[in-house]
Structure formats: structure tokens, C-alpha cells
Specification:
InsA_N_dom_Znf; Transposase_27_IS1; single chain; elongated; 3 helices; 2 domains; alpha+beta; N-terminal domain of TfIIb; IS1 family transposase
Length: 90
């Protein structure tokens, strides 16, 4: 059964052919696009890290600050920061 609303669109392909697809571990309704298969929530609380914040993180890494200090200053999670550092390394 397609959940078709005028307001909700897939963030990847902008299709409006959306179906409910369970809940996240926080209890938020999850949706799935029938066109591209992308799973998403309607109003995500976490947003992608923008370019200016990534530049700040790069500068803080060059200053050899600890990862814990960088997470406190920038507000990113320690898990995301470790993933980002690993990507930079490779």
C-alpha cells in the first residue's frame, strides 16, 4: 500500500511513492521510497555535517587536539569523527 502525501517526497529521487517501513529504535516512523529504495524518516533530528564545520575539524586535527575535545567544540559525535578521521587517513 503506497503512502502518498503531497508534502512528503523521497530525499534522494524526489518521488512521492512512499510506503511505511517500520520504526527506528527510537520509535520514529520510517518510510521507504518504492522508486529508489531509499529509507528515511520524515523529520530527521540529525543533519549532515556542513563544509565549514568539516574545515574547522580539519584545522583542529592539525592542531593535534584530542577527539574528545573536537567533539565538544564542534558538536559532532565521537563515532562520526572517528569515521571521518579514518576516511582522511585512507
Amino acid at each position: 500500500m503506497t503512502f502518498n502525501t503531497g508534502a512528503m517526497h523521497c530525499p534522494k529521487c524526489n518521488s512521492n511513492k512512499i510506503v511505511k517501513n517500520g520504526r527506528t529504535h527510537y520509535g520514529t516512523q520510517r518510510f521507504k521510497c518504492q522508486k529508489c529504495g531509499r529509507q528515511f524518516v520524515e523529520s530527521p533530528t540529525r543533519q549532515p555535517i556542513n563544509h565549514s564545520k568539516r574545515e574547522l575539524i580539519d584545522k583542529l586535527l592539525l592542531e593535534r587536539l584530542s577527539k574528545a575535545a573536537i567533539t565538544r567544540v564542534t558538536g559532532v559525535s565521537l563515532r562520526w569523527l572517528q569515521y571521518y578521521v579514518n576516511q582522511k587517513y585512507y
